[in-house]
Each structure stands twice: as structure tokens, then as C-alpha cells.
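To the wet lab folks,

You asked to see what we're planning to order before we commit. Fair enough. Below is the target structure as C-alpha cells, and below that is the sequence we designed to fit it. If anything looks off to you, flag it before the synthesis order goes out.
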């Protein structure tokens, strides 16, 4: 799996240039690089069946690596709101800064907005030092669960974040993509991501 780009929606104060953030980004990059299909191939190949691949297994591989680096999975961030948002996919507790949150999108565009809003609240309430959302590229999106959140669909809303008042912290989106498309690659089983069906489509043998 490879990273195509990282876009900063909020980048305020010195945190972006800190050694802790550089270490965080390195750990996330390494976690993404560990994602393989087939397992043991050393790269991530995606079978180009339209809406044929789930994303839950991709996410789990990344989260497993981050957990080995001291990240806490599915942790709730205590925000000063009437309705507490759901748990964050992964949180890294830092020695000299507030925790850093990572969300990996497995739902639809509404879920993408919720994930970003959750991390924005954490920044505004000074509960987080930063947050990152991982989304598939437009080249990867067609082969994943129908209506899964993706970069191109959320991009028109980016101007909103420029008006938020955050003195120190970051909010970013990292865009990922398969190494190659291959009809020989195993289809990735779907979970409850996006608008996934109960069964993964079969590949025609014709």
C-alpha cells in the first residue's frame, strides 16, 4: 500500500515541526506500507471488481501495526459536548503534547464528516494535539465498497476548516492507493463498511 499525498486542513503552531509529530507520521507511514494483498507478497494488489472489495481487513492490518507501536485502539476522547462521539480508531499518547488521533474511513461520506468533526472538536477543546483521517484515492475508490468515503467527495468542504480558530495543532487527510491492480489478487471480504452487502461479489470465470 502506498501514500499518494497528505493534505493539511488545519496546521497551526509548532506541533507540525515537532519530533513527536515526525515520529507519528513515520509510524503511520510504516503501518500503511505493511498492508499486503496477497499476504506475503510485499505489496498491495487490488482486484479491479467494481465495488468488490471491503476495507475492514485493510484497516485492521494498519491498526495491528500501530498497536505494536504503543497506539491505543478504539479509545474514546473526552470532549466537552452534550453528545459524546464514538471511539477513535487509534490514539497515540505523547509525553510533551496532547494525544494524537487517527481515523481510517470504513463508512460513507456522512461517516467521513463525523470523523473529521470529532477530531476538530478535540482540537478546539484542547483534548488533541492533532488528527489524521485516511481515505482512498479516486483511483482506488471504484474497487471498494459502494459509497465508501473518499478524498474527492470530501474535498469541496475543505474551505470550512480555514475559518476554525486553533492555536496549535493539525488536522490532515492522508490519501492511500493500491500498488497495482491485478485480477489475480484475492477479493477482500466485506464487513459492515460503507453500503457493503453481506457477500463479496464472485469473479466471473469466463
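Sequence we intend to order:
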Amino acid at each position: 500500500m502506498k501514500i499518494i499525498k497528505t493534505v493539511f486542513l488545519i496546521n497551526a503552531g509548532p506541533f507540525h515541526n515537532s519530533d513527536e509529530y515526525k515520529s507519528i507520521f513515520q509510524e503511520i507511514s510504516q503501518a500503511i506500507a505493511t498492508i499486503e494483498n496477497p499476504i506475503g507478497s510485499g505489496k498491495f494488489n487490488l482486484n479491479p471488481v467494481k465495488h468488490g472489495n471491503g476495507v475492514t481487513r485493510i484497516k485492521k492490518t494498519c491498526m495491528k501495526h500501530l498497536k505494536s507501536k504503543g497506539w491505543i485502539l478504539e479509545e474514546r476522547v473526552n470532549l466537552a459536548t452534550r453528545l459524546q462521539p464514538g471511539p477513535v480508531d487509534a490514539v497515540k499518547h505523547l509525553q510533551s503534547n496532547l494525544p494524537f488521533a487517527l481515523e481510517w474511513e470504513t463508512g460513507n461520506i456522512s461517516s467521513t464528516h463525523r470523523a473529521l468533526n470529532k477530531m476538530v472538536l478535540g482540537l478546539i477543546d484542547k483534548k488533541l494535539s492533532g488528527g489524521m483521517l485516511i481515505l482512498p484515492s479516486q483511483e482506488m475508490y471504484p474497487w471498494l465498497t459502494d459509497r465508501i468515503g473518499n478524498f474527492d467527495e470530501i474535498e469541496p468542504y475543505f474551505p470550512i476548516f480555514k475559518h476554525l480558530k486553533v492555536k496549535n495543532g493539525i488536522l490532515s487527510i492522508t490519501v492511500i492507493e493500491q500498488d497495482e491492480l491485478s485480477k489475480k489478487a484475492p477479493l477482500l471480504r466485506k464487513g459492515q463498511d460503507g453500503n457493503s452487502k453481506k457477500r463479496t461479489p464472485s469473479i466471473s470465470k469466463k
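Structural context that might help your review: The helical segments are 19-33, 56-68, 109-124, 151-154. The chain has one domain: 2-181.

Thanks,
Computational group
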